[in-house]
Write a structure and sequence with these properties.
It is a single chain. The chain is mainly alpha-helical. The protein has one domain: AhpD-like (Up-down Bundle). The chain is about 70% helix and about 0% strand.
Length: about 150
């Protein structure tokens, strides 16, 4: 730990079972059938909202490799106004924002209904889990001040 910051390797050495559990959940979500491009979009958006530079940098790189367009990545903070997102992506981004910010206000019923309209129950369960997972990582990496790159 230098400058009062714990890096990822130090965190993993200190709590290997935590990292293993989070990676296991990540694998389950990856194998769920949800599109990688979709899950990477929500990871980018949640990381923006949470101010987690470490996770944002990582997931921007992964999103590009997964085939998310640069235009979508450039416009994700303004997804409501940007015509590049599909209805499914819009519902996922809206659900991501609602869950990520739910301490500020309860999740509105209409947002839940829009998510349900785009995602059958099983997909919604995995989507919600993916959002919970990136929020957990954001709190770990952001709280412990992991440096990007």
């Amino acid at each position: 730990m230098s400058d009062g910051k714990l890096d990822f390797q130090q965190f993993e050495a200190a709590a290997p079972a935590v990292v293993a559990a989070l990676r296991s959940l990540s694998r389950v979500i990856a194998e769920s059938g949800l599109e990688t491009t979709l899950t990477e979009l929500l990871k980018v958006r949640a990381s923006q909202l949470n101010g987690c530079a470490f996770c944002l940098g990582m997931h921007l790189d992964i999103a590009r490799r997964a085939g998310v367009s640069q235009q979508a990545l450039d416009l994700i903070a303004t997804w409501r106004e940007a015509p590049v997102f599909t209805p499914r992506e819009r519902a996922a981004l809206e659900w991501t924002e609602a869950l990520t910010l739910m301490a500020r206000q309860p999740v509105p019923d209409e947002i839940y209904r829009r998510a349900c309209a785009q995602f059958p129950a099983q997909e919604l369960a995995f989507l919600t889990s993916a959002i919970a997972l990136i929020n957990a990582w954001n709190r770990i990496a952001g709280g412990l001040r992991f440096e990007p790159g």
